[in-house]
Amino acid sequence: CSPQKREQYWAKLSGPLMDRIDLQVAVNRLKPEEITRQPTGEESEPVRVRVQRARELATRRFQSESSLRCNAEMQSSHINKWCQLDEASRNLLEMAIRKLGLSARASDRILKVARTIADLSGDESLKTNHVGEAVQYRTIDRMQ
User: Fold this and answer.
1) Does the global pTM surpass 0.70?
2) 131 assigned to some structural domain
């Protein structure tokens, strides 16, 4: 099999496969000096509290839906109900779908991730920055 045929085969396989992965993030290799430095990241306790609050928001949101516990479990009807977009956010998502060639499944996953990002921010409604960040987590499979 030629390298070109392998690449075509992989492209056919990887699209549907990658559509099923919510977060896709490229991480560069660290330099030795970056490995040995003290971590400068966020402390665990504030992150834990923020995640706990986000989970509480989702729990309250899904009180009337016995089959749902978290944003990842939402189906299309739930997404339409709890991931409504303003005009700017809709335009951003449509542009990303066109530019990155995203499927309907990938679009739904972007909205679920955007809902989670909004929850972590304590926001009831989705905003452009939430959708933009969620789109960024989908671009690795389109970097070929």
Assistant:
1) yes
2) yes
